[in-house]
Design a protein that fits this description.
Mean pLDDT: 97
CATH architecture of the largest domain: 3-Layer(aba) Sandwich
Shape: globular
Low-confidence stretches: none
Strand content: 15-25%
Largest sheet: 3 strands, antiparallel
CATH class of the largest domain: Alpha Beta
Number of helices: 9
Length: 252
């Protein structure tokens, strides 16, 4: 959705490796924002984004207007039965319907052979992979690793909206994941205890409001009571007015 950072550029470089022609989409999608979310204030800097894309070796930027993607009379959306009913989908109803619809339209317009998405948005990546399987898109989906700042904060366009005094609180997301992984390495496998460990790290900061901390099956996103197999530890936290997400994979 723009306001490119090193995480986006890493996706572009991977795309450059995987294809002969590299197209980057640049579109703040109104259909994936709820009525009280930050569509109007989402960071935007088109001139800078185009300059970064060109320097990274992008061949073309797909940059439509909203009225081109959702013209008057538009009424067809793509939805999914189960995966959106977990994690971010619980507090952002309709969000993933907007994501699936715009990605399906992107795929139909561009007809790529490979599409590269970041693993930071783990649920989004899982949902797009499911759509590609279910609707027989002949596209390979590549998930690229999360890129982090030096202090561990997962790179996100929304990081630009963080107040300077909230930066340390924002890094508590990463530190909470590491604390839970450390406890797991010492033999604690009960999900409730691991979640509580992560929660304590974040709740030290009054400006942090936890949306969720979940330990889930990486395939179905359903809650797991015990980390007796590979699991997803995912969280969403509002730091001031900025909603951030992060995750890690747990291996017992």
């Amino acid at each position: 959705m723009g306001y490119f950072h090193e995480g986006h550029l890493a996706l572009m470089r991977k795309g450059r490796e995987l294809g002969d022609d590299l197209i980057v989409s640049l579109f703040v999608n109104p259909a994936q924002f709820g009525p009280n979310e930050d569509f109007a204030t989402y960071p935007r800097n088109t001139e800078r984004d185009l300059d970064l894309a060109e320097k990274t070796g992008v061949d073309a930027v797909f940059m439509p207007e909203a009225k081109e993607i959702y013209p008057p009379g538009f009424q067809t959306f793509v939805d999914q039965e189960d995966l959106p009913d977990h994690l971010c989908g619980l507090s952002r109803p309709g969000h993933f319907r907007g994501v699936l619809t715009v990605v399906a339209k992107l795929f139909n317009i561009i007809r790529p052979h490979v599409a590269v998405f970041g693993q930071k948005d783990f649920q989004q990546l899982a949902i797009i992979r499911q759509m590609v399987r279910d609707l027989d898109f002949n596209i390979e989906i590549y998930g690229a690793a999360t890129v982090r700042e030096a202090d561990g904060l997962a790179m996100s366009s929304r990081n630009a909206k963080l107040a300077p005094e909230h930066r340390e609180a924002a890094t508590s997301l990463y530190r909470s994941l590491q604390a839970a992984k450390d406890q797991l390495s010492k033999g604690e496998t009960r999900a409730a205890r691991l979640i509580d460990t992560a929660r304590q790290v974040i709740e030290k900061y009054p400006e942090a409001a936890i949306d969720y901390i979940k330990i889930s099956d990486p395939q179905t996103l359903a809650d797991l009571p015990e980390v007796d197999r590979p699991a997803l530890l995912a969280l969403a936290v509002k730091i001031g007015e900025v909603r951030l997400i992060d995750h890690t994979l747990l291996t017992p």
